[in-house]
Amino acid sequence: MELQIIQNKIYEIRGHKVMLDFDLAGLYGVETRRLKEQVKRNIERFPADFMFQLTKIEWNGLIANCDNLPENAKYSPATPFAFTQEGVAMLSGVLRSPKLYRSTSVSCVLLSLFVSY
Fold this sequence. Notes:
This protein has helices at residues 3-7, 21-28, 32-41, 56-65, 71-74, 85-94, 100-116; strands at residues 10-13, 16-20, 51-53, 81-83.
């Protein structure tokens, strides 16, 4: 796993360092819709300081200023969810990925990157 690539997926939004749902889904090896389903099923574990949905204005600003966003995400009708460091940690606990070991190791790398970013 290329650490620089992951660091480039950490954004500062609303004064928080966050990662977006589609980037996390790719790192955990699940589809974005599955990630969102698990979050919605466990919404009580994700308070506002763990996760929030970007507004259209925030999303359009990010699209305008970032070259590394996937094309399909840019044109999605829904704005992405942003996960803080705590949200990323909680996410690894609610995802039912067949790659559980991978999820655990990905979480450890992500959390250390948040701290060093």
